[in-house]
Amino acid sequence: MAKKQFKAESKQLLDLMINSIYTHREIFLREIISNASDAIDKLHYKSITESDIPVSREDFRIDVKVDNEAGTVTVSDNGIGMTREDMDANLGVIAHSGSLDFKKNIEEGKDVDIIGQFGVGFYSSFLVSDKVTVRSKAYGQDQAWEWVSSGADGYTVKECEKDSYGTDVIMHIREDDENESYSTYLDTYTLEDLIKKYSDYVRWPIHMMLEKGAMEETGETNEDGTPKKEWKTHGEDTVVNSMVPIWQRDKASVTDDDCKNFYKEKFHDYEEPVSVIRVNAEGTVSYKAMLFVPKVAPYNFYSRDFEPGLQLYSSGVMIMDKCKDLLPDCFRFVRGIVDSPDLSLNISREMLQHDRQLSMIRSNLEKKIKNELERLLTEDRETYNEFHKNFGPQIKYGIVEDWGAKSDLLKDLIMFHSMKLDKPITLKEYVDSMPEGQEKIYYASAESIARAKQLPQTEQVMDKGYDIICLTEEVDEFTLRTLRNYNEKEFCDINGKDLGLETEDEKKESDAKEEEAKDILAFVKESLGDRVDSVKLSRKLKTHAVCLSSEGDVSFEMEKYFANIPGGNEMERVKAKRVLEINASHPAFESLKKAYEADKDKAKAMSEIMLCQALLMAGMPVDDMLGYSENIFKLF
Ligand code: ADP
Ligand code: MG
After folding, report:
1. Where in the chain are the domains?
2. Which of 295, 359, 391, 532 is the most exposed place for a label (fewest CB within 10 A)?
3. Ligand 2: distance of its center to the CA of 329 in Å?
């Protein structure tokens, strides 16, 4: 019998399948099972739309069998089946452009690993087989046909015997070689795992013969007269897949606890999620989604290892384990599942064509997640606080990213520690409780809340009855800089130059004092050299003698941040402009004045000490500790 040749494209694809190193070989089973399921769908549809089709829904099934002697895995279905012409038309060519995309990607050297998650259809059987036999009888036909191919050199079709309609796909598993252990696909448990992993929610039952064991009576008796028992195993016809996924069931029939338990099991989290979000969308794009907001961050959440994404299903078949495109980065902590019948298995093609669909789902989910978090914030603050402790920084990164593109979405979800109330508050809560006359949102950056509270600059702001938010995370200050303001209220760094607290009159008075102290301030600046950029009389200190503030765009916290970046030393150092502020009403200033008149050496030592004190209070290092302590002893 003459061999028929595959269409040119298909031949190349088969070559690639057989010869390329391909890391996702295991998807072959999912592909063959999904074809079986499609074939049953077709017959089922026929049976309900046409009369005289005496098949009943309960009889439909898919069987996966292993024959170790023959070295084959067989997937059988009692679906619509194929005629000889069907075989020629469907198995002899690349049936869909998904496979074509696959081929293009390999040729262009794209990451096969990622492509490996997509469907490649019937040909994927050749990833693990050196020969594939398809025996099929179309529903309503008398003759069955056998299609055989050993790969790229073509295929044959001949008549064969088959009792009933449906299809058997018999895969002759390859011999192991140095790169691959194909024999694992002849192992029942491996196959069972693969079915659970990829085909758990296929809506027809997938049967396997599984070894079950039990203690059974042997017929003999023990010495004490009791019946003798032995461990015996026997094959048992078992349905391996669970068929109806929890997210497909209607909301009323699934309790919150069901969802939470499902989450814990599916995503291996020992903590319950703080929220379950269920979506059932119908319209331009239909999909069902079940999303979870975890309570605690996985240990690797803030590292590169963490892989975000939602599981993507199409009618019960898993297409992708972690689909990043479904989730905006700011919500990358969300876990869950999206199931859309509108996406075909061959999403590599669909991705390009229907990218619009994915992005519609994404923006839809984005809104749902935001609404849910907002609900939590208002209705269950304690839980939200806990959530925010874990994932607040991620949301703040979301604001900083893309120059604030997501600011409006996220700005009401972030919180900062309030110095006045000693608990985390939102920016809205801050602004809503601002007393009359307060124009700005004050913030203090420091390593910790305790450190922030000790900053000398806080006194005057707090005295006015204004709250200060503490920025303790690296991302905090960048977040505020990206936002620029909140509802038109600007952010103001209490370490910065001008806090805008003075009235016009007070300002005039301060200017006059500054003028008066001109010489002594110049002296201090000269004594300190370029360790400070300027020396001024302070307009914000009350009980403290000195403080350090920064002028210009770079703050002290940013300076520290850039200093910590690896390679930061080689970069042009980003430095804050340092201003030493001295409190003119403090006795220390009086002493300095006296020394300045009488003993310049002493005044110099005092200047040094003032700078060191200011540095220490700002949480900055003092480089010359020895000099510092010598200066102190000069005053004895
Ligand atoms: P797709 O499933 O995307 O159409 P495949 O390469 O997986 O592409 O399958 C090619 C075609 O072969 C199917 O469309 C179908 O017509 C036919 N086919 C494959 N397996 C079966 C089966 N078990 N029963 C009936 N037809 C099948
Ligand atoms: Mg298919």
Report:
1. 10-209, 246-382, 414-493, 504-633
2. 359
3. 32
